[in-house]
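Q: Please design a sequence for this.
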């Protein structure tokens, strides 16, 4: 009997040790598969007390710092206390910045008119670009920076055309293309959406390009957004706000009588119109915010639109970008007078 008990205990101990070994190996494998986060420590720039006038992009990084791209005054970083400006004298390749993104590892990516740079807090690295057209892409595993994307540590660039196997000239000085990309969005399903200059909107699922090119979409699509419910929104420079419904982009500006045919026909802006849209975001109450380049911003609660302009404390009616921070504040970047911050009650300036 004792021999049997000793044998049984030995077998159980062996099984326990084997189980612990497999568990440890699995934990080590999972740990190795996790993305290593880079902690960016800013070592360049100078402290200032005012931001540039012409704001292009606002983002909040993984360390909760606010980054602001401007056209003419470089980049600003705000940590809640100090405002740091980074310009060409600190090594920034250009003071005219079109876009900023943070990748999944914590690096900041900077888009100028022609090039893309990565920034580690100390120096800027010019990225070599590979042009991609008509190839399969695992869209779930890429970092997207407007028309550029990062895949397996290699930077590539999307080009669009009628024939997806033939790149069109896009976003460069070699010539104009109606396929020029103004805005991109990677949605929760991994689809990539492209807002173009004159060809409407294109969806790419990693293998197939699907075009939405109804006539009222084909004017400079400058805004693309997915709300918390998974709805896709778009805005262009002329016909206004659209929502994807039953695989058709329906004109919301027209539905709420906020369109402006005079701009489309005569390039004339109209007070109280929501037709020239540059940006879209959503607050913590799931209210949609829409920026226009001529009539301030609009808030949509699902039933009605409310317009905010300089009469309400906005720094400008010419709004280029919107961003909702992790506290629910709406950051409003203007084209000509800096930034307003809306806390749910009042507007203040940075």
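A: Design:
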């Amino acid at each position: 009997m004792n021999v049997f008990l000793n044998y049984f205990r030995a077998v159980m101990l062996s099984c326990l040790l084997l189980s612990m070994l497999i568990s440890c190996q699995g934990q080590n494998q999972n740990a190795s598969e996790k993305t290593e986060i880079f902690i960016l420590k800013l070592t360049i720039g100078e402290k200032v007390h005012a931001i540039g006038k012409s704001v292009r992009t606002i983002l909040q990084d993984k360390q909760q710092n606010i980054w602001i791209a401007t056209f003419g005054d470089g980049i600003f970083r705000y940590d809640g206390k100090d405002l740091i400006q980074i310009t060409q004298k600190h090594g920034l390749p250009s003071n005219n910045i079109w876009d900023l993104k943070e990748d999944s590892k914590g690096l900041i990516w900077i888009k100028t008119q022609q090039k893309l740079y990565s920034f580690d807090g100390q120096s800027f690295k010019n990225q070599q670009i590979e042009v991609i057209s008509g190839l399969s892409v695992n869209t779930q595993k890429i970092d997207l920076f407007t028309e550029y994307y990062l895949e397996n540590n290699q930077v590539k660039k999307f080009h669009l055309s009628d024939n997806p196997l033939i790149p069109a000239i896009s976003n460069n000085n070699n010539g104009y293309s109606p396929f020029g990309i103004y805005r991109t969005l990677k949605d929760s399903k991994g689809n990539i959406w492209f807002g173009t200059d004159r060809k409407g909107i294109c969806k790419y699922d990693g293998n197939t390009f699907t075009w939405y090119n109804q006539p009222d979409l084909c004017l400079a699509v400058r805004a693309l957004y997915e709300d918390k419910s998974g709805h896709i929104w778009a805005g262009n420079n002329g016909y206004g706000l659209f929502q994807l419904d039953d695989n058709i982009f329906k004109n919301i500006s027209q539905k709420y009588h906020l369109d402006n045919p005079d701009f489309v026909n005569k390039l004339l802006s109209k007070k109280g119109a929501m037709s020239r849209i540059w940006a879209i975001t959503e607050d913590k109450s799931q209210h949609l915010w829409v920026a226009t380049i001529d009539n301030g911003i609009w808030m949509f609660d699902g039933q009605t639109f409310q317009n905010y302009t300089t009469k309400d404390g906005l720094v400008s009616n010419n709004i280029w970008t919107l961003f909702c921070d992790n506290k629910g504040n709406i950051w409003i970047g203007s084209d000509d007078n800096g930034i307003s911050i809306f806390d749910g009650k009042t507007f203040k300036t940075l």
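Q: Thanks. Anything notable?
A: Residues 134 and 164 are 5 Å apart (CA to CA). The radius of gyration is 24 Å.
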